[in-house]
Amino acid sequence: MDIDRYISSNEATWVRLDELTRRARQRVAALDDGELDELVALYQRSTAQLSYAQTYFRDPALTARLTKLVAAAAQVIYGKRPRTAQTIVGFFATTFPAAVWHNRRFMAVAAVAFFGPAVLVAVWLLNSRAALDASGSAAERTHYVEQQFEQYYSAQPSAQFFTQVTTNNIRVGFMAFALGGIACVPGVAILAFNGVSLGQAAAWMISEGDTLRFFGLILPHGALELTAIVFAGGAGLAVGWALIAPGDRLRSEAVAEEGRRAAAIALGLMATFVAAGLIEGFVTGSGLPAAVRVGIGLTAWAVFVAYLWRRGRAAAAQGLTGALGERPADVAGVFPVATSGR
User: Hey, which bits of the chain come out as E strands?
Assistant: First the structure.
């Protein structure tokens, strides 16, 4: 199709979208429900037509016209920018959980890569005296259990410790994320390395008869913190796998798409690491009973998982995958969902 035929066949759409946009700009209530539905449908259609025109015609005048038209309609539909609060709410209500849900299989792989070595090392050290002694002398293990483990959580003022552990956790999460994007193997390695460290710490504490103290200090913050590290690693693995096996997409397109989704996960996990840091800084090392500390931590973790499960499934039902820049078909609930028959 040449450019003249393309303009002729779509002119009515653009004129109608411009008319509805102008009316809605003056007063949204001036449009009835059917017209609002039509506005959204025409906006989506014109956005696709703009993309087509940019790809196949590259005509400056047509591109400028459609860009202006689509931008004006978007301003009416999504509201005037910046709408910071709405954007943040929309991100955590839809984008972040959608991205995690879409990459849930990679999260499962990351969980195995982390917790698998942790369990194996702990079981091995607890069942092999030679392996336990090779991991550290009796004096080193006793010093760690009696002098280092619990004191780590209370040696500094809470606010200072919160800042320190949050920064460290974000660094570890970023490493797992970044290394996972390099063909997967380095990401799996860093997850496994951290899992081994956790397994050794567990074995040392349990072998000294401090099982309850170990879990009483790890679970309050660890349930949320370790889940966030695993999710960061899973996001990196998704990018790395797109590089290895892009499927029917160009490798550059696959990596870019997964990168936008992984970026959404990374941004969401920043808040998760802050929440875990608050618990570690102000709850784990506090004087609260162990049962209360563990209860707080596991409650926070359960709420986090339930939120991701519920919101992620809901977003997936709308066809969303959590890539940054992706918008739901019903424009965040501001207007009714556009029907495909329009």
Answer: none
Give Cα separations from 314 to 37, 238, 307, 340 (angstroms).
Answer: 21, 21, 11, 20
- Residues 6+ away with beta carbon under 8 Å from 107: 100, 230, 231, 234
> In the chain, what are the domain boundaries?
3-81, 89-317
Task: Map tokens 């860093």 to a residue.
Answer: 190
Q: Which residue has the tokens 């490493």?
A: 175
pLDDT, tens digit (0-9, with 9 covering 90-100), for 265-317:
999 999 999 999 999 999 998 889 999 999 999 999 999 999 999 999 999 99
Q: Which amino acid is at 91?
A: F
The confidence score (pLDDT) of residue 84 equals: 60
CA atoms within 13 A on the CB side of 216: 16
Q: Which residue type sits at 109?
A: V
From residue 142, give the alpha-carbon distance in Å to each of 49, 145, 148, 232. Answer: 70, 5, 9, 33
- Please report how many Cα atoms fall inside a 13 Å half-sphere around the Cα of residue 70, on the Cβ side: 15
Site of tokens 């049962």: 291
pLDDT tens digits for range 210-239: 999 999 999 999 999 999 999 999 999 999
Q: Around 128, how many Cα atoms within 13 Å sit in the side-chain half-sphere?
A: 13
Distance in angstroms (rounded) separating the CA atoms of residues 282 and 330? 41
Nearest to 98 by CA among 198, 220, 235, 6: 235
Prediction pTM value: 0.70
How high is the pLDDT of residue 340?
36
**Number of Cβ within a 10 Å radius of residue 76:** 21
pLDDT at 181: 62
